[in-house]
Amino acid sequence: MARVILMVIDSFGIGHAPDADKFGDVGANTFANLSKALEKEKGRPIHLPNFAKLGLLSAGEQASGVRVNHEKVENVKGAYGYAAELSTGKDTPSGHWEMAGVPVLFDWGYFDKKENSFPLDLINKINEATGCLGMLGNCHASGTVIIEQLGEKHIKTGLPICYTSADSVFQVAAHEEHFGLDNLYRYCEIVQKIVGPMNIGRVIARPFVGDDAKSFTRTGNRRDYSILPPAPTVLDNIQKAGGTVISVGKIADIFAHQGISENTKATGIDALTDATLDHINTAKDNTIIFTNLVNFDQDFGHRRDPVGYGLALEAFDKRITEIKAAMKDDDILFFTADHGCDPTWPGSDHTREYVPVLAYHHHIGQVNLAERTTFADLGQTIADIFNVTKLSYGTSFLDELVFK
Ligand SMILES: O=P(O)(O)O[C@H]1O[C@H](CO)[C@@H](O)[C@H]1O
Ligand SMILES: [Mn+2]
Ligand SMILES: [Mn+2]
C-alpha cells in the first residue's frame, strides 16, 4: 500500500482565478510576478529545475497564459495541472479543507472595518472572560508592522495586541517574556471559544521577542486555533480505514487536530523539509505525510518580498532532489498551494488564484492534468489512492497517474 507525501507551498498561486474579480485580484500571479521581480533584481531568470521537471512552467502557462522565463526543460516527468477554488474565501483553512475534499461553501465571519474592527460588545466579552483590562490594535494590520508600532506600548501596559486582516482571523500578538507564551495561548483559547460561534475561522497566537521596536521579531511559536472542518475530510477517512495521517508544520492546527495521527512541528522551510524527510524515511505503508510550508506565505507573500520569495523557492527546489531520492517505489508525491499571496500586489493580503497541482512517482511519464475546477480533485484522488470512502466533492485523477 502506497504512501502519499503532500506538500503545500503556502500561498504559491500561479495566476488569477476565474472569480478573481470578486476579490479585486484580476492580474495577480504570485509565481509569474515574483519571478519577474527576481529576474529584474538578479539579472537572470528564476532557476527551479526540479519544479520545471515536474511541469510547473506548463501548469503556470495554462493557468495564466504567461510562461515564466526559465531555461529550457527537457522531458517533463510528472503530472501537472492548475486548480480553481470553490470555497467562498481565499484563506488558509478554506484552501486546505477544500484540498482535503471539503470546500467551505458557507460565509466566514469577517471583521470588515479597517479601524475599530472589533465591535465593543465583543471587546467587553473578551476582556471579561480573559481578565485583561483592554487590548491594543483593534484594526486591520500587517503582523510585523503592528508589533513595531505597538510592541513597546504592549510591554508598558501589559495589554495584548489584537488585529485582523481580509481573512476570517482574530490575531493576537504578545511578547513571549513580558506577556508570557502560556498566557498568550490561554488568551487565544478563550477568544476562540467566543469568536468561533461567529464563524471566525481562526484565532492566531503571534508571539514575539526583542527589546524595542527595532528589534522585535516573531518567533516560531505561532499557534492557530481553528474551528472544526464542517464535514469529514480525506484525513478522517484515511484514519477511519486504519491509515496514518502525519502532520508536519501547521496542518494539525488547520484541521483543529481532527483526522491527525501524529504531529511534528518545525520552524522554517528547511526544518519543515527535514521533518518531512525524516517521516519519508521512517513512515510505514498506508500513511499520508502532509506538510505545510507556511514561510512562503508568512515571510515573503504577506511581507510583499518577491525576491525573497523567489530565492526561497530556488532553495526549496534543490531539496526536491532529496525528497525524490527518499521516496519508495510506490510512493506518490504532490505539491500544491492553498491560495495566492502575490508579493507584488497592493496591500498585504492573500490573492485569489489558481494553485498548481503537481504529482510525481518514480514510474510516471509526462501527464497534463489541465484545469481542475476544485482543489477537492486532489482530496478525491488521495481517497482513491488509499481506497477509502469517497468525498462529496472532487473528481479523482488517479487513473491519469499511470505507473509505467
Ligand atoms: O500579517 P500577518 O500577521 O503575518 O498575518 C497574516 O497571516 C494571516 C494568516 O495567513 C493572514 O490573515 C494575514 O493577516
Ligand atoms: Mn495559507
Ligand atoms: Mn497567509
Automatic annotation (TrEMBL):
Domain called Metalloenzyme: residue spans: 3-389
Superkingdom of origin: Bacteria
**Enzyme Commission number, as recorded:** 5.4.2.7
Required co-factors: Mn(2+)
* Annotated binding of Mn(2+) 1, by residue: D10, D338, H339
Main localization category: cytoplasm
Q: Which reaction does it catalyse?
A: 2-deoxy-alpha-D-ribose 1-phosphate = 2-deoxy-D-ribose 5-phosphate; alpha-D-ribose 1-phosphate = D-ribose 5-phosphate
A single Gene Ontology MF term assigned here is: manganese ion binding
Which Gene Ontology cellular component terms are annotated?
A: cytosol
Biological process terms in GO annotation? 2-deoxyribose 1-phosphate catabolic process; 5-phosphoribose 1-diphosphate biosynthetic process; metabolic compound salvage; nucleotide metabolic process
Q: Which regions form coiled coils? A: none
Q: Where does Mn(2+) 2 bind?
A: D297, H302, H350
Q: SUPFAM superfamilies this protein is in?
A: Alkaline phosphatase-like (SSF53649), DeoB insert domain-like (SSF143856)
Arranged from A to Z, the UniProt key words for this protein are: Cytoplasm, Isomerase, Manganese, Metal-binding
Establish whether keyword Manganese is in the entry: yes
Q: In which pathway does it act?
A: Carbohydrate degradation; 2-deoxy-D-ribose 1-phosphate degradation; D-glyceraldehyde 3-phosphate and acetaldehyde from 2-deoxy-alpha-D-ribose 1-phosphate: step 1/2
How the cofactor is bound: the record states:
Binds 2 manganese ions.
Q: Please describe what this protein does.
A: Isomerase that catalyzes the conversion of deoxy-ribose 1-phosphate (dRib-1-P) and ribose 1-phosphate (Rib-1-P) to deoxy-ribose 5-phosphate (dRib-5-P) and ribose 5-phosphate (Rib-5-P), respectively.
What does the sequence similarity comment in the record state about its family? Belongs to the phosphopentomutase family.
NCBIfam families attached to this UniProt entry: deoB, PRK05362.1
- HAMAP family (UniProt xref): Phosphopentomut
What's the protein name? Phosphopentomutase
The taxonomy runs: Bacteria, Pseudomonadati, Pseudomonadota, Gammaproteobacteria, Alteromonadales
